[in-house]
Automatic annotation (TrEMBL):
GO terms for biological process: mitochondrial translation; ribosome disassembly. This is Elongation factor G2. Keywords: GTP-binding, Hydrolase, Mitochondrion, Nucleotide-binding, Protein biosynthesis. It catalyses: GTP + H2O = GDP + phosphate + H(+).
Length: 700
C-alpha cells in the first residue's frame, strides 16, 4: 500500500469565507472508463496545492483511487470525495467510477451535486458509459461542462456530443496542435493563447504561457480560432454561464491531463460556469428555513470509527457533538465528530454550513437516502409550513412531504450463492454482508427459502468479484462463491379474474375476508407492476388499502414459473369484503393467496436481460468478433469506423456474456475493448424458455 503525502495548508478548512454559498462548487467528475477522470482529478489537486506530488493510475498511487482493488486494477470502483480551494472558491469534488457495474456510485453522487464535469477521450468521443452518466445528470438536472481529454480529434468529439447526447456544445477553446503535437489552446473569449512548454519529461505543467493571439501566429491556428470565435462573439462569460445553468448548452474545454495540459483553465471554468449551491433550487428545503436539513448519500465502514456517513447539507449548519433527527428511521442519533472528506484522509472540524458536503461519525442507523434534520420539532414545523402552502395552492388536500427524495437503486442482474469456509464463520459473514450492503445499496443479499443458502445479487461479474475480494481482504473470510447466474424476470400472458375467501379462527377470534381481483399484462408499465382499485372500493380505509397493496406487492416478488420477480403486470382490486374484527395481516394474506391463484391462471413468460454491447476492435479481427457474437444470440445494430478501428454496436442476452472479456482478449490478441449496458428485458422464445426451465429444474 503506497503512502501519499498530502499538503494540508494552514487554515485550509477555515469556513469563515466559505460560509458564502456563492463561493462553493459541489461538482462531480464523470465519464466512460479510461477517459481520464481520475488523472484529471489528480491534476486538479496538484495545481490547487493540495498534494505535493502527482500520482499515476498505472502506478496505483492516485489520491482518489485508494482501495486496494482500485490500485491493482487501475480503475475507479467507488466514488471518492475531496475538498480543495481554487482562486478563493471552495470546490467539493466527487470522482466517480466509469464502469457500468458501479453506476449507482454515479447516481448517488449526482443526486447531491450542483454541477458536473464530463470527461471525454477526444479520440473516441461519446462512448457507451458516457451516454449513461449523461442521462443520469439530465435526470437530476445537473449543469455540465465537457472536457475533451487526450486532445486529438476536435471535430469528431463535438459532433458526437451533438448527435449522441443531443446537447448543444459551446466551444470555448480551439487546440494548438493535436495528439502528440498538442501544446495548448486558444481561449476564444479572451482571444489569448495558453501554451504549455514541456522543458523535460518530468515537467509538471504548473507553469504555462498566456499570450495574445496576433497576426504573426500560425495561419491555420488563426483561421480556426477566428471562425470559432465569430460564433461565440455574442456569448460573453455571463451569457455562457446562463446557458450552462439552464442546460441549454455545455461549455467545451480541451486538454490532456496525463501530459499536464489544460487542467487549470478547466478549474477556472468550473468556478465561472457551474452553479453555486444557492443557484440550485430545491423546493422542499425552503420549508426548513435556517434549520438543518441534509441528505445521507453514502456510507463507509471504518474499523476504528464505525460507520462514516456522507451528508450533503442543504440548509442550516451541521455541528459536531450534537443530536440530529433521522426522519426516515424516526430516530434520534448523536453525531460525535464532523470531518471534511479528502479521499481516505479526513480533517476534523467543529461545524459545517449549508451548501457543503460533510463526513460524520456516530450515525449508526442512517443509510443512503435518509433525510437528517435538526430535531423532530423542526421537521414538524417544516411540515406545517409546507402544508399551509399546499392548502392555498393547487395541491389542496394532499399531504405535504418534508423528506428529501432518496437515491434510485438499480435492480441487480446477476446472483450467486456464497458460503463461509465453516459454519463457525457464518455469523462473521453475515456481519460483513450487512456492512457491505449498507455501503453499497446495489448489492442485495437474501436467503434462499428452499436451500437456506445465502445469495448475493449484484450489478455484474466485476461487481460480485470485487465484493468477494473485499470480504476476504477487509473481513478476513475466505468464502466460496457458487456459479454466477442471471437474474431473469417474469410476466404474465393472459387477463384473468379470480376470487378467494379466507376464513380462519385464531384463538377465540374469527377472521373472514373475501377478495375479488383481476390481473393483466401491462406492456405500458415501463418495467414496473401496478395496483389499482375499482370505484366501489373507495370506502376502504387508508389502513385497509395499504394492507391490500402489501398483499399485492408481496406477490409481485415471485413469478409463477421460476419465482423470479414480476414486471409489466397490472392488478385491479374489484372488491374487498371484511367482517368485523378481522386483522389487517389476514387481509394481506387473503390478497396474496388470491394473487397467487390469478398469476398461475394467467400463465408465465420468462424475460431475460438484453445488453447493449459496444466493441472497439481492429479491422483485422472484426470477422472473428462477429462470428463469436452470432453464436451468442447477438444482433448487430451498426458497425462504425473510428480512426483505424471498427466500433461494433449490438444487443446480446446477458446470459451469453459470461466470461466475455477473456474470450474477446483471446480472439483479438488483446487488441479490443468492450462495454456493456442493460438495454431491456425481453421475452425469451419458447425453445430457450423450455431449456431454461429444464436446467433450473435440474439445479433444484
Amino acid at each position: 500500500h503506497i503512502k501519499r503525502q498530502y499538503s494540508f495548508l494552514p487554515g485550509m478548512f477555515s469556513f469563515q469565507i466559505m460560509a458564502m454559498c456563492t463561493m462553493i462548487r459541489n461538482i462531480g467528475i464523470m465519464a466512460h472508463i479510461d477517459a481520464g477522470k481520475t488523472t484529471t482529478t489528480e491534476r486538479m489537486l496538484y495545481y490547487s496545492g493540495y498534494i505535493r506530488a502527482l500520482g499515476d493510475v498505472d502506478d496505483g498511487d492516485t489520491v482518489t483511487d485508494f482501495m486496494a482493488q482500485e490500485r491493482e486494477r487501475g480503475i475507479t470502483i467507488q466514488s471518492a470525495a475531496v475538498t480543495f480551494d481554487w482562486k478563493s472558491h471552495r470546490i467539493n469534488l466527487i470522482d466517480t467510477p466509469g464502469h457500468v457495474d458501479f453506476t449507482l456510485e454515479v447516481e448517488r453522487a449526482l443526486r447531491v451535486l450542483d454541477g458536473a464535469v464530463a470527461v471525454f477521450d477526444a479520440s473516441a468521443g461519446v462512448e457507451a458509459q458516457t451516454l449513461t452518466v449523461w442521462r443520469q445528470a439530465e435526470k437530476h438536472h445537473v449543469p455540465c461542462i465537457c472536457f475533451l481529454n487526450k486532445m486529438d480529434n476536435l471535430g469528431f468529439s463535438i459532433q458526437s456530443i451533438r448527435d449522441k447526447l443531443k446537447a448543444n456544445p459551446v466551444l470555448l477553446q480551439t487546440p494548438i496542435g493535436s495528439g502528440k503535437n498538442f501544446t495548448g489552446v486558444v481561449d476564444l473569449i479572451t482571444n489569448q493563447k495558453l501554451i504549455w512548454k514541456q522543458k523535460s519529461v518530468g515537467d509538471d505543467g504548473r507553469a504555462y504561457e498566456v499570450k495574445p493571439l496576433n497576426e504573426l501566429d500560425d495561419a491555420a491556428v488563426l483561421q480556426e480560432a477566428k471562425g470559432a470565435r465569430s460564433a461565440l462573439i455574442e456569448q460573453l462569460q455571463a451569457a455562457v454561464r446562463r446557458v450552462t445553468l439552464a442546460r441549454k448548452g455545455v461549455p467545451v474545454l480541451l486538454g490532456s491531463s496525463l501530459k499536464n495540459k489544460g487542467v487549470q483553465p478547466l478549474l477556472d471554468a468550473i468556478t465561472a460556469y457551474l452553479p453555486a449551491p444557492n443557484e440550485r433550487h430545491h423546493d422542499l428545503v425552503q420549508w426548513y428555513k435556517d434549520d438543518l436539513c441534509a441528505l445521507a448519500f453514502k456510507v463507509l465502514h471504518d474499523k476504528q470509527r464505525g460507520p462514516l456517513v456522507f451528508l450533503r447539507i442543504y440548509s442550516g449548519t451541521l455541528k459536531a457533538q450534537t443530536a440530529v433527527h433521522n426522519i426516515n428511521r424516526n430516530s434520534i442519533e448523536r453525531m460525535s465528530r464532523l470531518l471534511v472528506p479528502f479521499a481516505d484522509q479526513h480533517v476534523e472540524i467543529p461545524s459545517m454550513p449549508a451548501g457543503n458536503i460533510a463526513l460524520t461519525v456516530g450515525l449508526k442507523q442512517t443509510v443512503t437516502g435518509d433525510t437528517i434534520v435538526l430535531s423532530k420539532a423542526s421537521a414538524a414545523a417544516a411540515a406545517r409550513r409546507a402544508q399551509n402552502k399546499a392548502d392555498t395552492g393547487k395541491k389542496r388536500g394532499e399531504h405535504a412531504s418534508v423528506i428529501l427524495s432518496g437515491v434510485e437503486v438499480p435492480d441487480p442482474v446477476f446472483f450467486c450463492t456464497i458460503e463461509p469456509p465453516t459454519m463457525a464463520k457464518q455469523a462473521d459473514l453475515e456481519n460483513a454482508l450487512n456492512c457491505l450492503q449498507r455501503e453499497d445499496p446495489s448489492l442485495k443479499v437474501r436467503v434462499d427459502p428452499d436451500s437456506g443458502q445465502t445469495v448475493l445479487c449484484g450489478m455484474g461479474e466485476l461487481h460480485i468479484e470485487i465484493i468477494h475480494d473485499r470480504i476476504r481482504r477487509e473481513y478476513g473470510i475466505e468464502t466460496h462463491l457458487g456459479p454466477l447466474q442471471v437474474a431473469y424476470r417474469e410476466t404474465i400472458v393472459q387477463h384473468v379474474s379470480t376470487t378467494d375467501t379466507l376464513d380462519r379462527t385464531i384463538g377465540e377470534k374469527r377472521h373472514v375476508v373475501t377478495v375479488e381481483l383481476s390481473v393483466r399484462p401491462a406492456a405500458d408499465a415501463g418495467g414496473s407492476c401496478q395496483v389499482e382499485f375499482e370505484e366501489q372500493t373507495v370506502e376502504l380505509s387508508p389502513e385497509m388499502k395499504e394492507a391490500v397493496e402489501n398483499g399485492v406487492h408481496s406477490s409481485y416478488l415471485q413469478g409463477p414459473l421460476l419465482g423470479y420477480p414480476l414486471q409489466d403486470v397490472s392488478t385491479l382490486i374489484q372488491s374487498v369484503h371484511v367482517e368485523s374484527g378481522t386483522s389487517l395481516a389476514m387481509v394481506s394474506a387473503c390478497v396474496s393467496r388470491c394473487m397467487l391463484k390469478a398469476l398461475k391462471l394467467a400463465g408465465g413468460q420468462v424475460l431475460e436481460p438484453v445488453m447493449s454491447l459496444e466493441v472497439t476492435v481492429g479491422e483485422d479481427y472484426l470477422g472473428s468478433v462477429l462470428g463469436d457474437l452470432a453464436q451468442r444470440r447477438g444482433t448487430v445494430r451498426d458497425i462504425q469506423s473510428r480512426h483505424d478501428n471498427k466500433v461494433l454496436l449490438a444487443t446480446v442476452p446477458l446470459a451469453e456474456m459470461m466470461g466475455y472479456s477473456t474470450i474477446l482478449r483471446t480472439l483479438t490478441s488483446g487488441n479490443a475493448t468492450f462495454s456493456l449496458e442493460l438495454d431491456s428485458y425481453e421475452a425469451m422464445n419458447l425453445q430457450d424458455q423450455n431449456t431454461l426451465l429444464k436446467r433450473m429444474s435440474g439445479l433444484l
